[in-house]
């Protein structure tokens, strides 16, 4: 890891979805209800690193990813790219930002226009951003296909003629066509079979090494996150509860939630039974986030302070940053 | 690979699909094909001038001379039915095409941007669909006066809403797919995303609806003709022909039966083609 | 939110729609060409008589004043005086409305009776002969103009075979049933084709749904599965369609009432338009709009009764 | 004759308010005589005046005073006596210009007074039409008492209330029930004074059920199915067929109905161009080029005749001429066209009624006929109201129109068709000083012969000037079941059920 | 060695191999369920697609059998075919011996008595497997009504008990709720409750935890394990997560392209798989490999239903394939007392010579 300025910095990012209030509510002047998806996310991405993001379903991982590429207009907090605030941008600036910060989506089926051939998809990307003069575009398309290990005749095919893994490669090729610096990969491989997953992950790691990409890797599969990430962030109900070097978070998680989460992943060793009892209770609704530490309802270590005060991320020696009142004792 | 060869590739797969067509679709295409030919060259196929009175053959039943018989003025029913093809096919197209275009554009934009435009649109739609279609069309025809052109205007004024509603819903459904988001992330302009990416994928049900709507337009146009609000006599139009013939339904059954059959067959053709297109355009995979 | 407040909020939501509806109606009627005074008066009337008439009708007032009066009157239930029938519009409509409502309900009943079983048969024999025949027949039904079906039924079943009366309405309930049978059938044929198409595909969709498979896996009997898990679910989307078709149905009654000489509001509408009877056109269009809105509301209610996901949380 | 029974009658349109002074549409006017009787009556020919509720009448020699005696023992349908006060009330009501549209027809009346059953009408000036007016629907006698007690403040409200809740009439029938737009029910007035052939009071029928069936074909189907006893307004195309039906008695009653087409005679058309039709020769050319016999064949299937009088139907009094006007003559037409300067390809538009099958035929036929003299006829299809507005504003070349007399006197139709002040001579803007003065004089001329002369002159003048395309006269076509006897529709259109009976 | 499958080359039917398979007890303990040569194809005649091809296996009382394999390999179809749910969609052949009767030959009516009563099933997708229009209570009790003689109140009581059992808080209050008012995990638990309603002897669990988060997944797996242990219930557990299989199953059957390729005790399969596909599957799991190192991945993609090769389905992707592999389908044969394998060239995972 480098010790220069981080490439991307996220400060206290919040994002709340407003629910559609019924008319009666409007008339009775009831306060609108919000789904509080992101509640103050702080993180940074160093050039060339992979940051893994894990958390339960619905904790806001995808929302974070979408906020980062500007799919959701910023609500609270800041996103700094190369020390520049990326919010309040003009369309041209937004376009340039997107060229440099690209995203790939979970669903290989839906992230490609079913009516455009791979060639057309890449051609469009290259010509809209004027990445190459018109005449050089066909060559560049071939190059890109080579880069993601797709046969060249793939250019003439429609997405439905590919397998899931190949489709994800097409999506990767599309993202790479504009030569971005950051790739946001939201559940890039979740929809794929294990063996295909491995192919795509290999490709991603290889590209990162070759092109010096910075990657935000969101995934369900903890083993995979551990495998690809330099650092890992654990999110619970829209807040980061623990973030740190992949090794340390996985081998010795501190936050009770990280512990439960990481330990719940079943090992493929039949004799390696987990010792930590599963979490009890359900994930609270993001419309109604408990006060204090959002995790206190399910936490075996919760005390009075957890119910009162929201813990902040704090650096712990030998670990990463942890947002827990009892981190010192648990660490 | 060049664009041309890409295009060729694409068309090739389209033809490949054509091979596995349903017999119903082929039947529908055949019906519509014939209808179009008759509509384009009515003078070629019609044995007589559709409007000339023939006092020697008043209300003649079908004979070799007059295959579909003649009406009470001695006009040849076959010729009138054939000439009506051009009116009715034109009706099917003109009464719907502007609705289609407007509806698609409005629906796409509203579905894409949502927000205030969508709310206003929603209210308008609510208000308009609160009227029975025919009631509103008749009211508009009453405002503009009877006649084909006014009928087209009336149908368009009301009809675009249905297209827009469908288009809006489809666009919103397509927006749920990540390729729309991907387009935004790729930094594409809104118009490119709407018209290059979303529209081609969202249009299928609209096109299918268009087919049924063309059949409906013929039915509606005939109904209006029948009520005296659509095509005006002596113009040969199926609804008008039926209206003219209905006085003689017991004595000269061919007058209303023949145009009736023409309507049913043509409508059938449109429906079959609509179903077929739905099949054809459904993306595989 | 209780169902009362839900109903209330639905009704509230109808307010903006209705304001728009009134604007549309008002403008539409004002846009009718030809001086309504000329339309109302006899051809022999002199200019002075015409002017007096305009004065009486308030046609000389500014547009917005007229609109204000219009809204005020509508709110107080006063729809004006019909020019054509020389009677209060509200009275006339109330006299005729039951006929149309009767006809419409009758047609809905027929549509369901025809479409329901046939859709089930078609869906259960998907792509087999029964299905193809049923679909073909309904396709023909969809391609046939309502007035033509009516004409054929009228000529053959009523005039020729004399099984049914030639048009009219009758006096008692059973006479209504008898007289309106053919008109209702006429309207229903078209609607049932739409419903049957929809119902068939929903049944097909539902019959392969995971929860139906799951019901099978539970070991329930096929009959129970069909009734409880398939039909009920398939009906949900059909109810919406039925609600949306109500406009269609009413359009159908408009034509059918003319063909069968049924004295309902549909025919009145045509008469009113031909006679340029402003107040009557206004009143009728408004009535149609209210009726359709109520039907929409009703379908919403039925739907949320059928489908708990649509109920207010 | 046989008594009793209920007649079921299929009508093309419903009545709205059957009141002598408010009836302004034909379906209302044509029913008045069944509910209200007039002081005088005309015989079936529509011309000969006979006593009605008044047993006798006499006009003073200066023509300014009309005396009548009210019949004894006559009663309204509620059993109350018909008295002089009712007559005064009815006539005052009829001539009050603030009420009904027909008051102008009684403009000559100065006052109406009564002494017991003797009634005196004083006139401002001699009026040749006054006798006939007292046999016309608008002077029919209503019950003053009933009006006084009826609810409502204005006269019209009272009339409406009466017709709905407690109809009281002087005619052979009483309105019993009215389902607007659907059906209407008359029952016999048991207090009616006229006697039938059997010496018993009229009417023969117990009741009449009217069904409103606007659709021609359905009306006929109902008759054929035996669901109704009679159906009016049979399309002429079907007359032959129904004549051939042995179960049906197809009647063609002589009428005052004429079909004609006003021609715009203004110097300039509405868009400011020179109007070729301003020339008399052009109009004559069109008239000669119109084959009326062919039109009659096409539209009436022979059941009519060409107009013989420029002003009126042959059934109207004082109509002259037995020969068809402008008998089809292409040569004359061509010559006149040349004279008028009609060049080949001259465009003229015919404004027709949208949805009217007859108009469509007329257009197609005229298009074919007039092309012979080089005219390109185009069609403009509008609805009735627009046609009326265009007629008033002059935005037309030629349009189709029709007429039926409401009054037995020719003054009404002559005033309508030719007298400029009435309505610019049906909107043609034809303004002929000689015609106008003749018309005015005739309206005060009590000498029948002189009046006939004036009318003859007017008719010649009008025919010569040809502000119309003179087309044809049509009868009223009513189809009756074989059992229905004695029904008449008068030339004015009035449906007379008083002597109708049903063979059991 | 025991023949479980017919010889595809001769196309011989059940008679020949039925005889060969008559006596499986000698190698295996008595099975509660024995599936022999189960094949299922979608559609009829020419255009039919073979989804599973001569699948044979047995489940012992109280045993948890894991069924793993790539998506589309036919795991769900196998389970559904056992209950006769796939007959509507095509052809089902082979024997499904349940307590000595062949379920495949039973009438629908007879099957109804076994479905949900003796053999229960949990479906893959909790979101769409409950009827959205009916209350959860009704969906539990209709099961009880069909299979028990309990009356209304007893059924309700039982339903509450069941919901309690699967850990749904305040169960009594939630009987009247509709599925959409439950989260995915809770719906999955409701399905389990329904499946357990009549205390089945065999539970077919089709990926009971895919839709769930790891934290909830563990709760559910623990529940199934506990029930199996307490009630002696056998389970066939479909999963594509080898971790889940490792933690819950006694034996594992690996499926590829509609066929079983390897069956054996969990430790054998996970520690020493022999079939090249099983090996590949296991190796591509990023566990116990250095971070960011290249993961093992099988080349190529799984064949679709329509274009399965004529020989061994895995041959095109198999590094150890020989010409024979692409011509002949290997049968599933017992290679040891506990393990059956369908491969002409078994590999050894431990020695790593599958590369
Ligand atoms: N457009 C939206 N409008 C309203 N609520 C939304 C919207 N998008 C997401 N949410 C809600 O925000 C919360 C977080 O969603 P998000 O997709 O970020 O979760 P996630 O962590 O990516 O979950 P998963 O692992 O299931 O993908 C969820 O409760 C979701 O219902
Ligand atoms: N109704 C159907 N019609 C045709 N083919 C089907 C149908 N249902 C499933 N298939 C096909 O059958 C094959 C096996 O499907 P199955 O559902 O058993 O896979 P699976 O192993 O359960 O996969 P997954 O892990 O994705 O659930 C697949 O190729 C699938 O596409
Ligand atoms: Mg997500
Ligand atoms: Mg499955």
UniProtKB/TrEMBL annotation, chain A:
Q: Which Pfam families match?
A: ABC_tran, oligo_HPY
| E.C. code | 7.4.2.10
Q: Which domain of life is it from?
A: Bacteria
The answer, when asked if Membrane is one of the entry's keywords, is: yes
Q: Which reaction does it catalyse?
A: glutathione(out) + ATP + H2O = glutathione(in) + ADP + phosphate + H(+)
Gene3D superfamilies per the UniProt record, alphabetical: P-loop containing nucleotide triphosphate hydrolases (3.40.50.300)
User: Where is the protein localized?
Assistant: Cell inner membrane
The record's GO molecular-function terms, alphabetically, read:
ATP binding
Q: Which SMART domains match?
A: AAA
Q: Which UniProt keywords apply?
A: ATP-binding, Cell inner membrane, Cell membrane, Hydrolase, Membrane, Nucleotide-binding, Repeat, Translocase, Transport
Annotated ABC transporter domain ranges read 8-262
Question: Briefly, what is this protein's role?
Answer: Part of the ABC transporter complex GsiABCD involved in glutathione import. Responsible for energy coupling to the transport system.
**Whom does it interact with, and what assembly results?**
The complex is composed of two ATP-binding proteins (GsiA), two transmembrane proteins (GsiC and GsiD) and a solute-binding protein (GsiB).
Q: Which family does it belong to?
A: Belongs to the ABC transporter superfamily. Glutathione importer (TC 3.A.1.5.11) family.
NCBIfam families according to UniProt: oligo_HPY (TIGR01727)
Recorded protein name is Glutathione import ATP-binding protein GsiA
From TrEMBL, chain B:
| Membrane spanning residue stretches | 21-45, 91-113, 120-143, 149-166, 206-231, 251-274
Membrane topology, as annotated: Multi-pass membrane protein
Keyword Transmembrane helix listed: yes
Taking every annotated instance into account, which residue ranges of this chain make up the domain ABC transmembrane type-1?
85-274
Keyword annotations: Cell membrane, Membrane, Peptide transport, Protein transport, Transmembrane, Transmembrane helix, Transport
Its primary localisation, in coarse terms, equals membrane
Q: What is the protein's given name?
A: ABC transporter permease
Location of the protein in the cell: Cell membrane
Q: Which family does it belong to?
A: Belongs to the binding-protein-dependent transport system permease family.
From TrEMBL, chain C:
Q: How does this protein lie in the membrane?
A: Multi-pass membrane protein
Give the keywords, sorted: Cell membrane, Membrane, Transmembrane, Transmembrane helix, Transport
| Membrane spanning residue stretches | 12-32, 103-124, 145-164, 176-195, 234-260, 280-299
Q: Does the keyword DNA repair apply?
A: no
Xref: Pfam families: BPD_transp_1, BPD_transp_1_N
Does the keyword section mention Transmembrane?
Answer: yes
Compartments, as annotated in UniProt: Cell membrane
Q: InterPro entries attached here?
A: BPD_transp_1_N, MetI-like, MetI-like_sf
Residue span(s) of domain ABC transmembrane type-1: 97-303
**In which family does this protein belong, per the annotation?**
Belongs to the binding-protein-dependent transport system permease family.
- Give the protein's recorded name: ABC transporter permease
What is the species of this protein? Answer: Kiloniella laminariae
TrEMBL record, chain E:
**Matching SMART domains:** AAA
Enumerate the InterPro entries for this protein.
AAA+_ATPase (IPR003593), ABC_Ni/Peptide_Import (IPR050388), ABC_transporter-like_ATP-bd (IPR003439), ABC_transporter-like_CS (IPR017871), Oligopep_ABC_C (IPR013563), P-loop_NTPase (IPR027417)
Spell out the residue ranges making up region: Disordered.
1-32
Coiled-coil boundaries: none
SUPFAM superfamilies (UniProt xref): P-loop containing nucleoside triphosphate hydrolases (SSF52540)
This protein's membrane topology, according to the annotation, is: Peripheral membrane protein
Return the protein name.
Answer: ABC transporter ATP-binding protein
Q: State the organism of origin.
A: Kiloniella laminariae
Taxonomic lineage is: Bacteria, Pseudomonadati, Pseudomonadota, Alphaproteobacteria, Rhodospirillales
């Amino acid at each position: 890891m480098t010790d220069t300025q981080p490439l991307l910095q996220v400060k206290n990012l919040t994002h709340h979805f407003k629910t559609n209030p019924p008319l009666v509510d409007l008339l009775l002047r009831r306060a609108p209800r919000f789904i509080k998806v992101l509640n103050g996310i702080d993180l940074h991405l160093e050039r060339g690193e992979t940051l893994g993001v894990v958390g339960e379903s619905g904790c806001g991982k995808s929302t974070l990813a979408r906020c980062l590429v500007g799919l959701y207009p910023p609500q609270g907090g800041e996103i700094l790219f190369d020390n520049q605030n990326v919010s309040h941008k003009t369309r041209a600036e937004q376009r340039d930002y997107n060229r440099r910060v690209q995203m790939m989506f979970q669903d290989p089926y839906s992230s490609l226009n079913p009516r455009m051939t791979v060639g057309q998809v890449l051609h469009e990307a290259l010509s809209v951003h004027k990445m190459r003069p018109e005449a050089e575009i066909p060559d560049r398309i071939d190059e890109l296909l080579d880069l993601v290990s797709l046969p060249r005749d793939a250019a003439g095919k429609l997405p439905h003629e590919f397998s899931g893994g190949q489709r994800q490669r097409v999506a990767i090729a599309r993202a790479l066509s504009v030569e971005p610096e950051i790739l946001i990969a939201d559940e890039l491989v979740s929809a794929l079979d294990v063996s295909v997953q491995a192919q795509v992950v290999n490709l991603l790691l290889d590209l990162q090494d070759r092109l010096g990409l910075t990657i935000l890797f969101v995934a369900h599969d903890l083993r995979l996150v551990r495998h690809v990430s330099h650092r890992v962030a654990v999110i619970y109900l829209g807040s980061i509860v623990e973030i740190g070097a992949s090794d340390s978070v996985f081998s010795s998680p501190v936050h009770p939630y990280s512990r439960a989460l990481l330990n719940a992943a079943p090992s493929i060793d039949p004799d390696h039974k987990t010792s930590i009892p599963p979490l009890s209770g359900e994930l609270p609704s993001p419309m109604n986030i408990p006060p204090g530490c959002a995790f206190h309802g399910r936490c075996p270590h919760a005390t009075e302070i957890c119910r009162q005060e929201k813990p902040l991320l704090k650096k712990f020696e030998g670990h990463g940053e942890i947002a827990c009142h009892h981190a010192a004792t648990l660490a | 690979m060049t664009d041309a060869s890409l295009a060729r590739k694409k068309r090739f797969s389209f033809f490949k699909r054509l091979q596995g067509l349903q017999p119903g679709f082929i039947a529908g295409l055949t019906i519509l094909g014939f209808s179009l030919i008759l509509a384009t060259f009515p003078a070629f196929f019609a044995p007589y001038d559709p409007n000339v009175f023939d006092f020697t053959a008043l209300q003649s039943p079908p004979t070799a001379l007059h295959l579909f018989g003649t009406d009470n003025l001695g006009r040849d029913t076959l010729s009138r039915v054939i000439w009506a093809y051009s009116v009715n096919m034109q009706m099917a197209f003109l009464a719907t095409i502007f609705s289609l275009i407007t509806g698609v554009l409005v629906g796409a934009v509203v579905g894409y941007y949502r927000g205030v435009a969508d709310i206003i649109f929603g209210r308008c739609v609510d208000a308009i669909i609160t009227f029975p279609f025919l009631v509103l069309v008749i009211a508009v025809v009453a405002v503009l006066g009877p006649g084909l052109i006014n009928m087209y205007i009336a149908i368009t004024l009301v009809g675009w809403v249905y297209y827009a509603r469908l288009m809006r819903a489809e666009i919103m459904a397509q927006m749920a797919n990540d390729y729309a988001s991907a387009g935004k992330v790729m930094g594409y302009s809104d118009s490119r995303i709407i018209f290059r990416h979303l529209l081609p994928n969202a249009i299928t049900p609209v096109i299918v609806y268009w087919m049924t709507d063309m059949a409906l337009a013929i039915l509606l146009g005939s109904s209006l003709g029948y009520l005296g609000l659509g095509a005006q006599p002596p113009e040969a139009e199926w609804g008008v022909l039926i209206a003219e013939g209905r006085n003689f339904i017991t004595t000269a059954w061919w007058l209303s039966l023949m145009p009736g059959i023409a309507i049913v067959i043509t409508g059938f053709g449109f429906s079959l083609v609509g179903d077929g297109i739905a099949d054809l355009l459904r993306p595989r995979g | 939110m209780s169902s009362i407040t839900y109903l209330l909020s639905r009704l509230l939501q109808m307010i903006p729609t209705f304001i728009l509806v009134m604007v549309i109606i008002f403008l539409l009627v004002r846009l009718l060409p030809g001086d309504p005074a000329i339309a109302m008066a006899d051809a022999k009337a002199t200019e002075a008589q015409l002017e007096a008439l305009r004065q009486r009708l308030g046609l000389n007032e500014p547009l917005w004043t007229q609109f204000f009066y219009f809204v005020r009157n509508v709110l107080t239930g006063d729809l004006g005086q019909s020019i054509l029938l020389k009677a209060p519009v509200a009275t006339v409509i109330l006299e005729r409305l039951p006929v149309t409502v009767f006809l419409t309900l009758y047609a809905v009943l027929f549509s369901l009776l025809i479409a329901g079983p046939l859709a089930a048969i078609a869906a259960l024999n998907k792509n087999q002969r029964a299905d193809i025949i049923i679909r073909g027949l309904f396709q023909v039904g969809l391609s046939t103009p309502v007035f033509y079906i009516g004409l054929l039924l009228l000529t053959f079943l009523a005039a020729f075979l004399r099984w049914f009366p030639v048009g009219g309405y009758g006096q008692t309930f059973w006479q209504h049933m008898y007289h309106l049978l053919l008109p209702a059938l006429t309207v229903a044929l078209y609607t049932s084709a739409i419903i049957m198409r929809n119902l068939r595909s929903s049944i097909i969709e539902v019959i392969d749904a995971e929860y139906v498979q799951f019901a099978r896996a539970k070991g329930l009997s096929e009959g129970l599965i069909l009734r409880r898990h398939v039909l009920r679910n398939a009906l949900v989307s059909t109810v919406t369609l039925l609600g949306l078709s109500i406009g269609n149905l009413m359009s159908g009654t408009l034509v059918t009432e003319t063909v069968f000489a049924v004295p309902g509001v549909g025919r009145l509408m045509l008469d009113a338009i031909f006679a340029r009877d402003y107040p009557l056109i206004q009143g009728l269009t408004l009535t149609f709009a209210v009726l359709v809105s109520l039907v929409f509301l009703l379908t919403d209610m039925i739907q949320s009764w059928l489908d708990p996901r649509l109920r207010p949380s | 004759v046989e008594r009793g029974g209920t007649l079921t009658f299929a009508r093309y349109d419903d009545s709205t308010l059957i009141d002598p002074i408010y009836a302004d549409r034909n379906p209302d006017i044509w029913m008045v005589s069944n509910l209200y009787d007039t002081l005088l009556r005309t015989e079936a020919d529509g011309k000969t005046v006979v006593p009605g509720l008044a047993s006798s009448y006499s006009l003073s020699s200066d023509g300014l005073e009309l005396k009548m005696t009210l019949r004894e023992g006559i009663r309204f349908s509620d059993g109350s006596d018909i008295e002089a006060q009712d007559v005064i009330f009815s006539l005052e009501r009829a001539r009050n210009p603030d009420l009904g549209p027909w008051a102008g027809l009684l403009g000559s009346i100065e006052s109406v007074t009564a002494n017991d059953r003797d009634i005196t009408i004083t006139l401002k000036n001699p009026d040749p039409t006054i006798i006939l007016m007292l046999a016309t629907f608008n002077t029919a006698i209503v019950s003053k008492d009933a009006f006084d007690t009826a609810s409502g403040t204005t006269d019209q409200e009272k009339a409406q209330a009466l017709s709905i809740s407690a109809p009281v009439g002087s005619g052979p029938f009483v309105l019993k029930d009215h389902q607007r737009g659907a059906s209407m029910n008359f029952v016999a007035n048991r207090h009616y004074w006229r006697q039938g052939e059997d010496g018993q009071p009229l009417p023969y029928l117990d009741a009449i059920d009217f069904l409103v069936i606007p659709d021609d074909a359905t009306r006929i189907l109902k008759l054929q199915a035996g669901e109704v006893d009679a159906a009016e307004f049979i399309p002429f195309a079907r007359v032959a067929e129904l004549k051939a039906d042995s179960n049906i008695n197809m009647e063609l009653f002589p009428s005052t109905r004429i079909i004609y087409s006003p021609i715009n005679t203004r110097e300039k058309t509405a868009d400011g161009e020179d109007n070729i039709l301003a020339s008399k020769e052009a109009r004559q050319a069109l008239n000669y080029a119109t084959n009326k016999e062919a039109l009659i064949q096409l539209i009436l299937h022979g059941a009519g005749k060409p107009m013989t009088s420029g002003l009126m139907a042959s059934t109207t009094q004082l109509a002259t001429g037995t020969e068809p006007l402008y008998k089809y003559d292409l040569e004359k037409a061509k010559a006149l066209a040349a004279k008028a300067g009609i060049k080949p390809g001259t465009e003229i538009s015919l404004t027709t009624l949208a949805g009217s099958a007859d108009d469509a035929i007329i257009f197609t036929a005229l298009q074919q006929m007039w092309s012979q003299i080089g005219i390109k006829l185009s069609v403009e299809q509008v609805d009735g109201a627009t046609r009326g507005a265009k007629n008033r504003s002059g935005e037309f070349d030629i349009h189709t129109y029709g007429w039926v007399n409401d009054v037995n006197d020719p003054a009404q139709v002559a005033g309508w068709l030719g007298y400029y002040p009435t309505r610019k001579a049906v909107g043609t803007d034809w303004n002929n000083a000689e015609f106008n003065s003749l018309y005015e004089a005739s309206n005060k001329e009590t000498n029948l012969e002189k009046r006939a002369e004036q009318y003859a002159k007017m008719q010649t003048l009008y025919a010569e000037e040809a502000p119309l395309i003179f087309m044809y006269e049509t009868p009223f076509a009513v189809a009756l079941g074989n059992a229905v006897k004695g029904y008449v529709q008068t030339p004015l259109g009035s449906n007379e059920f008083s002597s109708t009976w049903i063979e059991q | 060695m025991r023949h479980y499958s017919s010889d595809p080359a001769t196309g011989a039917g059940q008679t020949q191999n039925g005889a060969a398979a008559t006596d499986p007890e000698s190698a295996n303990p008595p099975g509660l369920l024995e599936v022999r040569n189960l094949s299922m194809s979608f559609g009829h005649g020419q255009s039919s697609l073979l989804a599973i091809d001569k699948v044979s296996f047995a489940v012992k009382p109280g045993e948890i059998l894991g069924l793993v394999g790539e998506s589309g390999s036919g795991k769900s179809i196998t389970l559904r075919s056992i209950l006769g749910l796939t007959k509507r969609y095509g052809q089902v052949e082979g024997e499904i011996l349940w307590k000595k009767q062949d379920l495949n030959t039973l009438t629908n009516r007879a099957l109804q008595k076994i479905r949900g009563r003796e053999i229960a099933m949990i479906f893959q997708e909790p979101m769409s497997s409950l009827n959205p229009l009916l209350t959860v209570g009704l969906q539990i009790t209709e099961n009880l009504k069909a299979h028990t003689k309990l009356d209304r109140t007893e059924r309700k009581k039982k339903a509450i008990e069941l919901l309690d059992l699967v850990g749904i808080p305040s169960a009594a209050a939630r009987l009247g709720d509709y599925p959409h008012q439950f989260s995915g995990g809770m719906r999955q638990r409701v399905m389990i409750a329904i499946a357990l309603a009549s205390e089945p002897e065999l539970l077919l669990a089709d990926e009971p935890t895919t839709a769930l988060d790891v934290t909830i997944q563990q709760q559910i797996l623990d529940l199934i394990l506990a029930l199996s242990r307490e009630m002696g219930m056998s389970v066939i557990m479909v999963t594509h997560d080898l971790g889940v299989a490792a933690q819950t199953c006694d034996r594992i059957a690996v499926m590829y392209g509609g066929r079983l390729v390897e069956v054996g005790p969990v430790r054998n399969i996970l520690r020493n798989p022999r079939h090249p596909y099983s090996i590949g599957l296991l190796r591509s799991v990023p566990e116990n490999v250095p971070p960011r190192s290249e993961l093992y991945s099988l080349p190529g993609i799984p064949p679709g239903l329509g274009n399965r090769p004529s020989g061994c389905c895995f041959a095109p992707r198999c590094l150890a394939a020989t010409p024979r592999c692409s011509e002949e389908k290997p049968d599933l044969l017992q290679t040891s007392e506990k393990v059956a394998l369908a491969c002409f060239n078994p590999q050894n995972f431990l020695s790593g010579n599958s590369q």
